[in-house]
């Protein structure tokens, strides 16, 4: 699992991120998020603001983004919150990265349905490309994390890379996705089985076939 401790608070970290503040476009998005909440409840926007801060860090570093401690302090100040409260949120949810990550954050689900459908082979595929759990690869492209269930059990095994899900994977299919990303391309997201659209069975529907073309009423047949 990902390390949930913040990166060490060093002078180098302060020098790089101590002056962090939202750009104009990110400030507009942050203020819009805050405005969704009633007066006196602005602190409820802590999660979207942390996400925005991480995305801005990602743009500045050409990575998926992470949350240095000075950036967390900036969000706390922006919302007039104790820093520890913001840190508690950031360190609890896996959508926030507490350490630097690569350009592509490869999150492989290792929970039972994905494991039974071959996630061990996906980890091996990542290992062969120089990835190791919790580390940035030497070329700066990849960070590998093993995660718990992300809700795609019907299309297991699956991997989330940055904001996109890739499902119905095999080692060969994952290799092809990683090749495209490394080449600066955007692979097809979702299921990787040709002809499938979402989580329907392979080979097409096997029951309720009349529902494919219309909202068929089966009640009289039951």
From TrEMBL:
Its cofactor is [2Fe-2S] cluster. The lineage of its organism: Bacteria, Pseudomonadati, Pseudomonadota, Alphaproteobacteria, Sphingomonadales. It comes from Qipengyuania pacifica. Keywords: 2Fe-2S, Iron, Iron-sulfur, Metal-binding. Pfam families: 2Fe-2S_thioredx. This is NADH-quinone oxidoreductase subunit NuoE. The keyword Metal-binding applies. Belongs to the complex I 24 kDa subunit family. The keyword Iron-sulfur applies. Residues 185-222 are annotated as: Disordered. Signal peptide: none annotated.
């Amino acid at each position: 699992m990902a390390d949930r401790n913040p990166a060490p608070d060093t002078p180098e970290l302060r020098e790089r991120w101590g002056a962090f503040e939202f750009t104009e476009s990110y400030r507009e998005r942050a203020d819009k998020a805050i405005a969704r909440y009633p007066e006196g409840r602005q602190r409820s926007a802590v999660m979207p603001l942390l996400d925005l801060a991480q995305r801005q860090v990602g743009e500045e570093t050409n990575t998926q983004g992470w949350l240095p401690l000075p950036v967390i302090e900036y969000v706390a100040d922006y919302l007039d919150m104790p820093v520890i409260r913001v840190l508690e949120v950031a360190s609890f949810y896996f959508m926030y990265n507490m350490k630097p990550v690569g350009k592509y954050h490869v999150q492989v689900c290792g929970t039972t349905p994905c494991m039974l459908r071959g996630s061990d082979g996906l980890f091996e595929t990542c290992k062969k490309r120089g990835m190791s759990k919790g580390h940035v690869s030497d070329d700066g492209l990849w960070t590998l994390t093993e995660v718990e269930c992300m809700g795609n059990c019907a299309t297991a095994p699956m991997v989330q890379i940055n904001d996109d899900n890739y499902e119905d994977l095999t080692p060969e299919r994952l290799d092809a996705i990683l090749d495209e990303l490394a080449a600066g391309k955007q692979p097809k997201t979702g299921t990787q089985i040709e002809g499938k659209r979402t989580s329907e069975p392979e080979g097409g529907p096997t029951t309720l076939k009349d529902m494919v073309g219309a909202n068929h009423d089966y009640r009289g047949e039951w």
